[in-house]
Amino acid sequence: MRRLLLPAFLALAAASGRAAEILDAEAFERLAEGRTLHFTEGGRPYGSEQFLPGHRSLWRYAGGEECAAGSWRGEGEAICFRYDGRPEEICWRFTREADGVFVELHGRDDGRRLRLGSTDTQPLPCPQTGAGT
């Protein structure tokens, strides 16, 4: 019996020690384009982003009524977003781990992470932009 348990234990230990996969621009595009991604923080809804062709997107905070139109680009290990009306670019690092996809601000290690809770193909309700509905 011990001989059977040892290989299973070693396989489990190897899988749990596997490093997170950082999603580059290509991997992120495969995950996001044509979908709406819904993010959570601490198990509560945080916001959703609809990804359109041409690296365009619409962001909406959970419970918010307004959407922000923007665009994204890959920059090394980061996915950077720029939204209409906001001069600063915001860069995030997306990682695929054994228990899901996580997002944290690139270059900041304060422990704050969002989790990709779900994805679907439903457009965001964004009446003021005329898109996503």
Write the layout of secondary structure elements.
Blueprint (H helix, E strand, L loop, with lengths): L1 H15 L4 E2 L2 H8 L3 E6 L2 E9 L3 E6 L6 E8 L2 E6 L6 E8 L2 E6 L8 E7 L13
Antiparallel strand pairs: 1-7, 2-3, 2-9, 3-4, 4-5, 5-6, 6-7, 7-8, 8-9
Mean pLDDT over the full residue set: 85
SSE arrangement, N to C: HEHEEEEEEEE
How would the global form be characterised?
Answer: globular
Put simply, the count of helices is 2
Any idea of the CATH class?
Answer: Mainly Beta
First-residue to last-residue Cα separation: 59 Å
Helix content: 10-25%
Q: What is the domain total for the residues? A: 1
Strand element count:
9
Task: Please indicate the percent range of residues in DSSP E strands (runs of 2 or more).
Answer: 35-45%
Task: Briefly summarize what is shown.
The chain has 133 residues and is of the alpha+beta class.
Overall description:
It is a single chain. The chain has 133 residues and is of the alpha+beta class. It has a single domain, classed as Beta Barrel (Lipocalin), CATH 2.40.128. Helix content is 17%, strand content 44%. The protein has 2 helices and 9 strands, in the order αβαββββββββ. It has helices at residues 2-16, 25-32; strands spanning 21-22, 36-41, 44-52, 56-61, 68-75, 78-83, 90-97, 100-105, 114-120. The chain has an 8-stranded antiparallel β-barrel. The longest helix has 15 residues, at 2-16. The radius of gyration is 18 Å and the shape is globular. The termini are far apart. Mean pLDDT is 85; it is low at 1-16.
